[in-house]
Specification:
- Strand 12 and strand 13 form a beta hairpin.
- About 25% of the residues lie in helices and about 25% in strands.
- It is of the alpha+beta class.
- The chain folds into 3 domains: about 140 residues, Alpha-Beta Barrel (TIM Barrel); about 80 residues, no CATH class; about 80 residues, Immunoglobulin-like (Sandwich).
- The two termini are about 30 Å apart.
């Protein structure tokens, strides 16, 4: 499904019984959030909706394919960083022909150029990142925890019972704060790959089972959050509790209390409805909230 809305794809997966799907939502989140200098929180918001898919669903992740512009064209000097981010997230990476050779193209004909058979720096870079995925189980099987989520900085952990990887995008080498379960872990810097990454191993005689179990529990939990819009505006956003970007299912107008995913990041935007039912979306950028950071007494205002 050529769709950037993960909830729409998840609904189709449930309806059809698909076991695998191309992850267009993550494709858009990385290319827009990282390469086009947008908002990195789009990545967290997209993956927060993983809980909408059936258990054991498999995502085919990618940065270009035969229907899109080439990643070398879209990402330019951020291409390696984009691949490092992709390879640090869940899913099965798919590499299109000649992507490793830096084939460029913004439109369909040129983007479908012939294969180039030569070894390049990018080809070796992708091979090295795939080699890391084969040797570090946390990169393929780890649960994901968002540690920081800001427009230009994103950090997260991939966690298994025996090891973890912490990743920082745009963090300028500063180590993110580790959760309490990793307070005594040993940190080992992984090779520089355009983003910062560390391999964490638990203290001798311990493991990360409690950390992994907490994330498993949070993946099914929600938290009540109060939202407020202008009197004539409704609120929609990336989570089904606020309509999953369907203005017909937006909440409001005025105040509304919704159940949002614990441990998740949710994008919100106000929308008005004309008398004939047409939506008029706010011109303001999306408002992103980190659900765990919202206090019980908070009311989140969404700009008109």
């Amino acid at each position: 499904m050529f769709d950037g809305n993960p909830v729409a794809i998840a609904n189709e997966v449930h309806a059809t019984g698909l076991t695998h799907s191309f992850d267009f939502p993550l494709y858009y989140a990385i290319t827009e959030g990282l390469c086009e200098d947008g908002d990195l929180r789009k990545v967290a918001a997209a993956l927060t909706q993983d809980r909408r898919y059936p258990a054991n669903h498999q995502w085919i992740t990618f940065l270009d394919n035969h229907d899109t512009a080439r990643v070398a064209t879209v990402c330019g000097d951020k291409t390696q960083a984009a691949f490092s981010l992709l390879m640090s997230l869940r899913g099965i990476p798919a590499i299109t022909w000649a992507t490793g050779q830096g084939l460029k193209g913004g439109r369909e004909i040129e983007a479908r150029g012939d294969m180039v058979f030569e070894q390049t720096e990018l080809h070796q870079f992708i091979a090295d990142r795939l080699g890391e995925r084969r040797s570090i189980t946390a990169l393929t099987d780890g649960a994901t925890e968002w540690l920081t989520a800001e427009p230009k900085t994103l950090s997260f952990a991939r966690v298994t019972a025996n090891e973890a990887v912490i990743v920082s995008v745009g963090g300028n080498g500063k180590k993110p704060a580790a959760p309490p379960e990793a307070a005594k872990a040993t940190w080992l810097s992984l090779p520089d790959s355009g983003i910062q990454r560390w391999l964490l191993t638990p203290e001798l005689g311990t493991d990360f089972s409690n950390w992994a179990q907490r994330l498993a529990n949070e993946s099914t939990q929600t938290k009540q959050v109060r939202l407020k819009s202008a009197s004539q505006s409704h609120i929609s956003g990336s989570d089904p509790a606020v309509g999953a970007w369907n203005p017909a299912n937006a909440v409001g107008p005025g105040e509304a209390e919704v159940a949002l995913p614990v441990g998740g990041v949710v994008a919100l935007k106000s929308v008005k409805r004309t008398e004939d039912g047409r939506p008029i979306w706010s011109a303001h950028p999306d408002l992103f909230i980190i659900v765990n950071d919202v206090a019980e007494t908070d009311t989140i205002s969404v700009s008109p």
